[in-house]
Protein 1
Amino acid sequence: MSSNPTTINAVDRYAESRRLFEAAQEFLAGGNSRLTVYYKPHPVYVEHGEGAYLYDVDGNRYLDVINNYTSLIHGHAHPEVEAAAVAAMRSGTAFAAPTGAEIKLARLLCERLPAVEQLRFVNSGTEAVMMAVKAARAFTGKPDIAKFEGAYHGAYDYVEVSLASSPDNWGDASAPASIAYSAGVPRTVLDEVVVLPFNHIEETRALLRRHKDRLAAVLIDVLPSRVGLVPATREFVAALQEECHALGILLISDEVISFRVDYHGAQGAFGFEPDLTTLAKIIGGGFPVGAVGGRREVMAVFDATEKSPMVPHGGTFNANPVTMAAGLKAMELLTPAVFNRLNAQGEQLRQSLSDIIRLSEVEWQVTGAGSLFRLIPTREPLTDYRSAHLTREQSERAAQLHWDLMNRGVFIGSGGFGCLSTPMGSAELESVIYAVENVLQSSDG
Ligand SMILES: Cc1ncc(COP(=O)(O)O)c(C=O)c1O
């Protein structure tokens, strides 16, 4: 490939970004506030975004195929979303009172998601997942949760368990070990999380049956970005739902990213009815947001109208009117026809990239669904976290691909993760295809 990420520092193309990152070290621990936007030797600093494009502080222009990690489904500064947000801002940005705006967005989401009768807003996907776990514990009276090996659900200790386990510590494939993600996590947290093998029906059933008396919920993302963006099989999801119902364990569908795959969310696309659903990213129209929703009976744990709620829930910026107005406009623009067009583009992109990979005979593959895609440096079939786990050499090739695409004006997530946005047309798709082809054919694979 054309340039090594460790030598990119020498390239003038990123001189101002490099200068800013050096300045940032003084006041920001590690130079920034967000691990997912840090990559070696330094991140690219953005100056502004417009539609499908980004401009960095050195004046370089990029097609943005990561869209703030999938949250900007209409790209940057969409005129109608911007107008809705600005109008809301002119009337004040947050009050110690609810506004009617939250009812409108809640109603739209409940109407679209088959398994969501009621919801509550928070400020991030992390918070949404945390509240869902607390709701499940309160509702069932059981303390523990189960989650899938390698799946990302935000920065709550419990749901980080075994997010990044590795061959030297992940244990038995049929009963994965509970491994801490960050230092200092108490042993008790690890003991309170059962780790399940993604897409393995019999092993998952066995673990749920063994631990049913202590499990409040199973948390699943049916299209987990860190498990290779490999979808759960429909049989697996159906079996999981059946088993959870039979055992009195709630099923939580984390659709923070995967809501964007269908007008009716991942639950609509995969045909299942979780007890609780977590949302974030696209529902905020580009502003910080999250939501936890589900069956009325379960959501009643938050209800303070008749007695003290089982789960008291507050938050200074929950359902603030700017986020609500921008989110409502962004969702209204996402009609079924718009979803169909975006998903057809996603399908076309994945197909074209797969064709290039096949013809170039390189060790890559493309995964994903809807408007999401991921380029993975292996041709081995991927089904679960262990098969999608990259060796050091593969991780280096993924990091290299990231820079090679950035150098060609394609702003992609580190690790080859990407998504489309509604301002993109065929010219944008072709430029991604052209850039990937160019990179793969100039490499030794
Ligand atoms: C599936 C999933 N759940 C939860 C989160 C956490 O969301 P947030 O970054 O808004 O806290 C993410 C973030 O990417 C996610 O992908």
Protein 2
Amino acid sequence: MKATFRQRLLNDPFGDPCLYVRTAREKGALIFDLGDIRCLSPAELHKISDAFITHTHIDHFIGFDILLRIVLRRDIPLNIYGPSGIIRNVEGKLRGYTWNLIREYPTEINVFGIGSRTVTHALFSAANGFRKIIVDKKPTDGLLLDAPLFTVSAVRLSHGTPCLAYRLDGKQQFNIDKDRLQKRGLSVGPWLTEFKKKIREHGVAGTIPIEGRQYRIRQLMDIVRIDKGPVLSYVTDIAINHKNLSTLISFVEGSDILYCEAYFLEKDRQRAINRFHLTAAECGRIARSANVKKLALMHFSPKYEDSPQLLQEEAAKEFGGEVICEPFQKLRQSSRQRQSF
Ligand SMILES: [Zn+2]
Ligand SMILES: [Zn+2]
């Protein structure tokens, strides 16, 4: 069975938080935050269809221009999601360049600004020099994207400015039990792809042709094993307050993996409160309270560059489960030049 997602953090924990997710069977990619994305190859950038931005502090959005340049000749639109101000931010970025030679380009950028109850859709297309067109404004329950194999939803939290947390839910997977297939005298073939598609879209209703004979889908269900889809959550730059924490815990409940900031140590809690960030201990508590399976740490304050293990230990102690932390040695020498918010 192929994994639904293959994901990786692009930078070490002192670098900009940024999660790149390949959607294996759809051959595309999603990205969560657009900070420093220089390590992505042009081919990897080209695959990005949807960018989910938590907020537009510079360490989460400076990579927009790099992505824009790569998708300029692409037929497939680029979709960008973020808190409501993101429409103005994208418009500002686009206005920073001269576009008189691109009117025949196919580029379209859809920007979705998520407010507390509504989502505003703005379109910027090369054909009209990237001038903003407001397409619509609709009520939202937080579901942003409903793709054939997964959904992405968001919740609005506070970081001194609105900040979104995201959750990627893989849909149920239908896997074929090859032994049962053989026992029925059926062979592996392209019909299985069609069969799984029909189950996904219409349940057990209808029939399917196999080697010249019609079969009822209902009667073939014993060859199918239904697996729950994986769940990833991405949370960063969150103020410590009761409303944020309780909203967040129910939002990320049951995630297979939670990517979360661990910006400050608990001993610097007052600083964390003033800067609207989580502590490593709060990050661990969120993961434990939400019954998360694995916790991946990111976005450490440069203050701790000589003792990153303290953040990892503090989060692990509160969580009590498996904590993943990318090696922090490799890029430490350059971390002094970075500024994060
Ligand atoms: Zn940040
Ligand atoms: Zn921030």
